[in-house]
Amino acid sequence: MTVVAPRQARGDTTAPSGSSTTPSRWHAISPLLVALLAAGGAALMYEVFIRTGLGQTVDTNAMRGGDVHHEQFTEVLSRTLNATQLVVLGVVCLIAVIVGALRRRFDLAIGVVLLVISANIAVQQLKSHLGRPDLDGSGMSNSFPSGHTAAAASVAFILIMAFPRALRGAMGLLGATYVTIVAVATVWAEWHRPSDTIAALLIVLACGSLIIWVIRLRRFGNPRASFTPARVATLPLTLVGAISTAAALFGLATLAVSERVMPDLVSGRFAFLTGVAGIVAAVAGTFYFWVRLTAGDPLPGPVEGGTT
């Protein structure tokens, strides 16, 4: 006799493989810890690269090592980066809100708006109020942290946050590439030092993590699926992050020794490439954590075929 399996109940929340249906306390508190670590990292960048003479010198040399003196290129770059702060930011924010609303994730729709507003206001306020003592003799005003990088990172973060789970890995890689180009371009054009861009990334991550923390607290105990992050994003980000971090640390150590012992030992181009390695490492690290945080977002309703 053939036994027919009973039909799955309509409200069944059975999750697909690779997910957990019982969010733990660690799941709820981990975004807060990431936010605190990111904020602490931004503060450390300020203390090391703004409030010490060696840090300022290394940072400024990295910015000046790109040697871009082409007026037409600088003009095109300026227009592109300004568009990042204005048109692109507004349009992408609107798209993310619409996607969140269509998915009936109104908490995410509100979250993307709060992320954009909080991250960009925080960066602009810090830039306006933080002091920069002239310890390297450059006489340049404060540019810490980078508003262009914060705008680009917030654009990428809200797209990863609002789009369905199946697209978040690809969006993470595309977003990381886009933010890397913008951040390196601002240093290449000598608008920002590497520390400015890295601090901006950390501030955006801190703001985004706090929003994810609030969303998880709101849904704490809700027996919905919590998915593991897409390896299509986490594996490349881990690999790139490890390589670029090693290169950046080696470069920083070399620059520090050169500045103390023999100032002309390394070239400006080496300093610039060290700054680029630091930016790439920061982008890979922040996007790795963001992809993991957004992948672990509990669903608002029944899981049907793994759709979020």
TrEMBL record:
Regions that span the bilayer: 26-46, 83-101, 108-126, 146-163, 170-191, 197-215, 235-258, 270-291
Keywords assigned by UniProt, alphabetized: Membrane, Transmembrane, Transmembrane helix
InterPro entries referenced in this protein's UniProt entry, alphabetically: PAP2/HPO (IPR000326), PAP2/HPO_sf (IPR036938)
Gene3D superfamilies: Phosphatidic acid phosphatase type 2/haloperoxidase
Transmembrane among keywords: yes
Sequence ranges of Low complexity compositional bias: 13-24
The UniProt record lists the keyword Transmembrane helix: yes
Superkingdom assignment: Bacteria
Phosphatidic acid phosphatase type 2/haloperoxidase domain location: 109-212
Coiled-coil stretches noted in the UniProt entry, renumbered to this chain: none
Region Disordered, residue ranges: 1-24
Pfam families, sorted: PAP2
Name of the protein described by the UniProt record: Phosphoesterase
